Amino acid sequence: MKLAEVWNERLTGAEVRPLTHDDDELIYQFQASHPEYFDHFQDHPVTRQEAIQDVTDLPLNAQPEQKAYLGVFRDGELQVLVDLIIDYPLPSLVWLGMWLPAKGLTTADSAALYHSLVATLQAADAVQLQLSVFMGDRQMKQFWEDLGLAAMQTTAVVKGERVANVTIYQDKF
Length: 173
What we know:
Elements: H1 3-8, E1 15-18, H2 24-32, H3 35-39, H4 48-53, E2 67-74, E3 77-86, E4 93-101, H5 107-123, E5 128-134, H6 138-146, E6 150-159, E7 162-172
Parallel strand pairs: 4-5
Antiparallel strand pairs: 1-2, 2-3, 3-4, 5-7, 6-7
């Protein structure tokens, strides 16, 4: 699926494109500018290696062709980093592994971009999106709840030697 191309058709004033290892420095700098995000599940600032491994990292039982690692750009500046796994963990379900907005992006602009993503996913026959929010991340919890996503369950995730509690949210289209 050419998700970036289809999403671009629904956007004005912004452009979506796949991020690759050619964008490693951009990805690292963008993630490094969000230390509060990484504080939820690791005891150190994100390293370059950790940041760039997101480009190809897959959850258990997912295939590389299911992954869409995208950047939303406005005036050449990265506005949102988006990591999606399509048809995961079930057909017609999309897992949103990361939605990382730029520091200067307003909540309203971030919400508008999310709504355009949902419209794009619906056009591709997706019926639901799920994501996790780290406990203690009040900002993203509020963002997703304000958009109408419903909390489904709380669980623990293990990253290295650390365990973090997360709430799984869903958006049924």
